[in-house]
């Protein structure tokens, strides 16, 4: 399993590396970082985490649009765009993980900012979901019993930036909003993971895209360890 999200401005050194502008948000254990400062119109979103795990636009689907972000630039999804990160061994389940990003909702509907789908089902190995109803904002996961094991916080209003992070530390699954723990699932178990790609701007249910995202995503990060509360607060600055 994994962990995602956040950052400050940067300048591009290559087509695959984003360098930070004001401060470097990369913490130990980072395995992918989509700073969103490069223009995705070339069909790719660069990975500044050092592994060159590009997010690619999908044939027949328009790329997200580059817009002003929380730090530097972001990418905007209109409910019919998404990008895909190809599965590789780097996504295999570690004993802990964290995922994080800045998100901005254009509208309050059921939607998924990014996810690692699992199996031929509507379940996710991990993902950040924002539901319009009382369920709220969740780190959504699937456990060994093949049932959802989610940690959820408050429902987010549209038209402002929020930093959202999900963490699995080997015992507890937690979701953070703006650096504050907003929900947790204790006595949690490791998430199931398979060879599905990561998707940004949508989810995938039984092989089809679902819960398209309407809004912006900036500084998406995935870590192969559980960040501390203090580290997540740092990313939310």
Main attributes?
single chain; 237 residues; mainly beta; Jelly Rolls; 8-stranded antiparallel sheet; 3% helix; globular; disordered N terminus
How would you characterize the overall build of this protein?
The structure is a single chain. This protein has 237 residues and is mainly β. It has one domain (11-235): Jelly Rolls. The protein contains one helix and 20 strands. The chain has one helix spanning 229-235; strands at residues 11-12, 18-19, 30-34, 44-45, 55-57, 65-68, 73-78, 83-85, 97-105, 111-117, 124-130, 137-141, 151-152, 161-168, 173-177, 180-185, 198-200, 203-205, 208-210, 214-223. The strands form four sheets. Strands 3, 6, 7, 9, 14, 15, 16 and 20 form an eight-stranded antiparallel beta sheet that branches. An eight-stranded antiparallel beta sheet has the order 4-5-8-17-10-11-12-13, with no helix packed on it. A hairpin with a 6-residue loop joins strand 10 (111-117) and strand 11. The longest helix is centred in the C-terminal third of the chain and has 7 residues, at 229-235. The protein is globular. The chain starts with 10 loop residues before the first strand and ends with a helix. Mean pLDDT is 89; it is low at 1-23.
């Amino acid at each position: 399993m994994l962990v995602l999200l956040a950052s400050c401005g940067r300048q591009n050194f290559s087509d695959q590396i984003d360098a930070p502008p004001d401060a470097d948000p990369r913490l130990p254990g980072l395995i992918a970082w989509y700073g969103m400062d490069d223009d995705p119109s070339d069909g790719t979103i660069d990975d500044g985490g050092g592994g060159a795990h590009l997010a690619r636009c999908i044939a027949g689907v328009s790329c997200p649009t580059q817009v002003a972000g929380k730090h530097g630039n972001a990418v905007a999804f209109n409910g019919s765009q998404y990008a895909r990160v190809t599965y590789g061994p780097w996504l295999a389940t570690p004993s802990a993980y964290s995922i994080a990003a800045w998100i901005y909702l254009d509208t309050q509907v059921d939607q998924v900012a990014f996810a690692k789908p699992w199996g031929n089902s509507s379940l996710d190995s991990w993902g950040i979901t924002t539901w319009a109803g009382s369920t709220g904002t969740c780190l959504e996961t699937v456990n060994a019993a093949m049932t959802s094991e989610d940690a959820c916080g408050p429902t987010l209003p549209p038209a402002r930036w929020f930093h959202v992070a999900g963490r699995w530390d080997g015992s507890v699954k937690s979701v953070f909003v703006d650096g504050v723990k907003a929900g947790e699932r204790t006595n949690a178990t490791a998430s199931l993971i398979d060879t599905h790609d990561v998707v940004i701007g949508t989810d995938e249910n039984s092989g089809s895209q679902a819960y398209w995202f309407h809004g912006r995503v900036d500084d998406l990060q995935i870590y192969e360890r559980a960040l501390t509360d203090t580290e997540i607060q740092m990313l939310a600055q």
